[in-house]
Design goal:
With 350 residues, this protein is an alpha+beta fold. Among the domains are: 98-192 and 205-226 and 239-259, Beta Polymerase, domain 2, CATH 3.30.460; 260-301. The chain has eight helices and five strands; from the N terminus they run αααββαβαββααα. A five-stranded mixed sheet has the order 1-2-5-4-3, with helices on both faces. The chain is elongated. It is found in: Mitochondrion inner membrane.
Length: 350
């Protein structure tokens, strides 16, 4: 049976390249079947699942995008968790300027690991001065150390009129001069044929420790006492100004571990506290002994008072025996005879 070329249901081999979608569209256009409720729910669930999978796959595809070369990709910068700025607690009766100094060292200068040592009550006082407060801080590098110390000294002189003696700090021109001299020495050694010294030599340029000593700052109104105030005719060295000495010790991390000032002064403070505790215990024992002696003397005194209050026994008068003519020492004449004798002697003189 030959196929009818005019029949639309018969496939034409000349149009085999056409997609089946044309046929399906034509077929659905002519024959539409009713859609059930179950088919609708199935289509909805499939659509939701496809949306979820596409949203989950979107970040993966964006994260791994091979079309952009590696040198043009923008990676999010990994930001390290910044440490909160920690300022040590103020000691009792602090100087008014101490909080400003701590805030500048920690926030403006950017020094880390601040530690405050209250050495105001040390007896004898340290060599840096009586009523001393010491601040210890760490810099990130030697350059940071010099910049922080230089800025701190200029800040105190500009804002508060204080002169800070920064031991170990090289001036801006002094560092250039020393570096130039060091390079000249190296060239001279190379010309002569000498060997360059190796190792960590102290050439006076590199430093990991700067000690900033402030002039005396105003003390708290409740902290105006001076060492030796309770001693009459004090002999020794002390200042009349009741101020507080402040010292800022700036280290690099390696130098701070090597020096370990915290252990040194912490041990001194512990020793003083221990000695103070022992002295207080001894004073307490002496007070208890004195109170015990006083309590024992009270009944003795009361007993003596009771004995004195009792009436004494009457004293019998002593009667002398009458004088006899044969006694060795005759009795003295009476007063009348003596008066008569004086009268007889004075009669002839008139």
């Amino acid at each position: 049976m030959a196929k009818d070329r005019d029949d639309p249901a018969v496939e034409d081999p000349e149009f085999a390249f056409l997609d089946d979608s044309t046929k399906s569209s034509t077929n659905t256009a002519h024959t539409e079947e009713p859609i059930s409720v179950a088919d609708t729910e199935l289509n909805t669930s499939v659509a939701e699942a496809s949306v979820e999978t596409s949203s989950a796959a979107a970040p993966k595809s964006s994260a791994v995008d091979t079309s952009i070369p590696w040198y043009l990709r923008q990676n999010p910068a990994a930001r390290d968790a910044q440490k909160p700025i920690e300022i040590p607690d103020l000691p009792p009766n602090p100087p008014p300027l101490l909080k400003t100094i701590l805030e500048y060292i920690s926030i403006t200068a950017g020094l880390d690991d601040l530690e405050l040592l209250d050495l105001r009550h040390l007896d004898p006082p340290p060599a840096l001065g009586p009523k001393l407060i010491m601040i210890i801080a760490t810099a990130r590098s030697e350059k940071h150390l010099h910049v922080a110390a230089d800025g701190f000294a200029r800040f105190l002189r500009r804002e508060h009129g204080l002169k800070a003696n920064a031991a170990g700090l090289l001036g801006r021109n002094e560092l250039k001069i020393k570096l130039r001299r060091k390079a000249k020495r190296m060239r001279m050694l190379a010309n002569v044929g000498g060997a360059v010294p190796e190792g960590n030599l102290d050439d006076g340029i590199r430093t990991g420790w700067i000690c900033c000593t402030l002039s005396k700052i105003e003390a708290h109104p409740d902290d105006m006492h001076l060492p030796g105030d309770n001693v009459d005719e004090f002999v020794g060295f002390r200042s009349v100004n009741p101020g507080v000495n402040v010292v800022v010790q700036m280290f690099t991390e390696e130098k701070r571990v090597e020096t370990d000032l915290e252990t040194l002064w912490g041990g001194v403070l512990k020793t003083q506290r221990r000695e103070g505790t022992v002295a207080e215990e001894k004073l307490k024992e002496l007070d208890e002994d004195v109170e015990a002696q006083e309590s024992a003397e009270v009944p003795l005194i009361s007993r003596q008072e009771e004995e004195t209050e009792t009436p004494a026994s009457p004293v019998r008068p002593v009667r002398l025996p009458p004088s006899m003519p044969g006694d060795v020492f005759p009795p003295a004449p009476g007063g009348d005879a003596a008066r008569q004798i004086r009268r007889l002697h004075t009669v002839g003189l008139r």
